[in-house]
Specification:
0% strand; 262 residues; mainly alpha; single chain
Length: 262
């Protein structure tokens, strides 16, 4: 019985993932045609960006501080305390800021998208939109995709700055390292491509979160129970896709041996 259930669940999940891929293609076609509801898009931007800002920055401060605590002691023991700022900057820019900010948005925004659109699906509000000759993709999905794709890079940049601030507070107050050395190290290590890679990753993650959340909402069945299941599986799927895409994006962006520390 359990094997049948797991196979069925995996089959349903695969079908919904395929539906999400198809929805992503439809969104791309509609965007090319320029079908954008500006008012809905601005409302979703406000929900994704400013409403998520506090928790994203709070997370970034402590992530930067904890990472610095773990790294600074070892580097100081090896006589390389002057590179702590650069290592933190690289880690935050290439991985921690875009990935952790996306994880926060997947839990907060992706679940909201799935719940809102799922509720509209089971209460036949989406059918009512179709009766009014309003395309749900134009009205519901595209504003959320644009909002996540645009606001997540901004949140990522702010998280990067806040994470560096958390690291700076730790090294100057706990390890008595020079503030100037910390900032100079970060400036020497970071390149334009590192910032660009963070923005590219964040934008891709934002689109993933929005498409998966909206798709799981659009394919919801079974009343209130179905809405709850869609919300949960949408978040889990978004997290999984973030980590999978992060691997491939990192592999494409950062192949080779890199530059020396000198």
């Amino acid at each position: 019985m359990s094997k049948t259930t797991s196979k069925f669940s995996l089959g349903v999940w695969s079908q919904r993932l395929l539906a999400a891929i198809l929805l992503g293609g439809q969104v791309l076609v509609h965007l090319i045609k320029g079908k954008i509801h500006r008012r809905n898009t601005l409302e979703q931007m406000a929900a994704v960006g400013p409403d998520s800002l506090f928790i994203a920055l709070l997370t970034a401060v402590f992530v930067g501080a904890v990472f610095t605590i773990q790294v600074a002691r070892e580097f100081i023991n090896f006589g390389a305390g002057n590179v702590v700022g650069g290592v933190l900057a690289i880690a935050l820019t290439r991985e921690l800021s875009p990935v952790l900010t996306a994880v926060i948005l997947a839990g907060r925004v992706g679940s909201a998208f799935a719940a809102e659109i799922g509720t509209m699906r089971v209460t036949e509000q989406i059918d009512a939109l179709l009766m009014l000759k309003t395309d749900p993709i134009d009205y519901l999905v595209i504003p959320r995709v644009i909002a996540c794709g645009f606001m997540l890079p901004i949140l990522t940049l702010l998280s990067l700055v806040t994470g560096m601030l958390g690291g700076l507070i730790v090294v100057t107050n706990i390890y008595n390292l020079s503030e100037t050395a910390f900032l100079d190290s970060a400036r020497n290590f970071l390149g334009i491509w590192d910032i660009c890679s963070a923005l590219i990753k964040a934008s891709c993650f934002g689109v993933l979160i929005a498409v998966i959340g909206c798709s799981w909402g659009m394919t919801t069945t079974g009343g209130a129970k179905g809405v709850g299941q869609s919300t949960t599986t949408a978040v889990v799927t978004a997290l999984l896709m973030i980590f999978v895409f992060n691997f491939f994006l990192s592999w494409l962006m950062f192949q080779g041996t890199g530059k020396g520390l000198g």
